[in-house]
Design a protein that fits this description.
single chain, alpha/beta, OB fold (Dihydrolipoamide Acetyltransferase, E2P), Rossmann fold, Ribonucleotide Reductase Protein R1, domain 1, 3 domains, 6-stranded mixed β-sheet, 5-stranded mixed beta barrel, 23% helix, binds guanosine-5'-triphosphate, binds magnesium ion, binds zinc ion
């Protein structure tokens, strides 16, 4: 019997069978793992094969090949990865310009990871009720930069119910990963769309600044208007491990079409003469902050390889 994983705690998994029944299952034996050194062999969104043993316990015996997945680095061990979710139609990065601040570097790393894992990405800036002139101007600038290169960038306020209809349209009939730093309002946003069930959010309005994670395990919720969302614990860093440094520019969508025009075919777009990417940055056709993010990610990749 096949089932979809709705929740993973590491020791047991809540799954929904093809008949619509929810069961708690455990893993039996060793599962094939796509060659990923991960802390969790089974992730939310996985389609798994179930068997019931003599005692009546439900066991996961196999994983159906994943269409895609997104990983993050294990906070305990940099060499281990944690699969956040699998088989996604799209992912929403919930950002905030205030309480807490989401940096451009973090956004660009997320977008590069989304390109590498073939998951279409959408940027959602929550807490727009906290925007003053400074934040409003910054948002306008950010929206222009990202929409120019093809990423929808939406402003919302969960608290003021602003922009929520647009998000509903984005989520309808899709499997969507909801990610972002702790405290940006991921669970609060999902709650607006669920009828009857309420998921836990941090109680104080605003953000404590302590980075306490309210959501501790990824969990999938079906949407009453079709589709499903996966709520995740706040994340510090997306993993890019499977990418070689020389490939990184392939995952910066605005750089990719220029790569063939660089003088050297192994150009890293740093010091090389005749670099089409650097020329585009100098001419203002590639945003300078995006290029800085590219250089930053490249240098951390080189660090990790030492
Ligand atoms: N001002 C303001 N506060 C908001 C808004 N949306 C959510 N919050 C508050 O932000 C805090 C964090 O919200 P959560 O939904 O728990 O955040 P989360 O992203 O799920 O956090 P983790 O589960 O820790 O990853 C709560 O106190 C919310 O009330 C908003 O639009 N405006
Ligand atoms: Mg949460
Ligand atoms: Zn180049």
């Amino acid at each position: 019997m096949k089932a979809t994983v709705y929740k993973s705690t590491g020791s047991w998994y809540r799954v929904r069978t093809e008949k619509g029944e929810f069961l708690d299952a455990r893993i039996r034996g060793r599962l094939k793992t796509d060659g990923i050194t991960s802390t969790n062999p089974v992730a939310v969104g996985d389609i798994v094969v179930l068997e019931t043993d003599e005692t009546g316990a439900v066991m996961i015996t196999d994983i159906v090949e994943r269409r895609n997945y997104i990983i993050r680095q294990s906070p305990q061990n940099r060499n281990l990865q944690h699969i956040i979710a699998a088989n996604l139609d799209q992912s929403l990065l919930i950002c905030s310009l205030k309480d807490p601040h989401t940096s451009r570097g973090f956004i660009d790393r997320f977008l590069a990871a989304s390109e590498a894992f073939h998951v279409p990405a959408i940027l959602v800036f929550n807490k727009s009720d906290l925007f003053r002139i400074k934040e409003s101007d910054l948002f306008k600038e950010i929206k222009e930069v990202y929409e120019k290169i093809g990423y929808p960038t939406i402003k919302v306020s969960v608290q003021h119910r602003f922009g929520i209809e647009q998000i509903r349209g984005v989520l309808r009939n899709k499997f969507t990963l909801i990610s972002g730093h702790s405290g940006v309002g991921k669970s609060s946003m999902i709650n607006l769309f669920l009828e009857g069930q309420e998921i836990k959010t941090s109680e104080v309005s605003g953000w404590s600044g302590k980075g306490v994670h309210t959501t501790t395990f990824a969990e999938m919720y079906e949407l009453p208007f079709g589709g499903a969302v996966i709520d995740t614990p706040g994340i510090r860093e997306f993993a890019l491990k499977e990418i070689e440094p020389v490939e990184l520019s392939h995952y910066f969508v605005e750089m990719k079409p220029l790569i063939g025009e660089c003088r050297f075919n192994n150009c890293m777009h740093t010091e090389e003469p005749g670099c089409a990417v650097k020329k585009a940055v100098a001419e203002g056709n590639i945003n300078a902050d995006r290029y800085v993010s590219y250089l930053t990610i490249l240098s951390t990749m080189n660090e990790e390889r030492k």
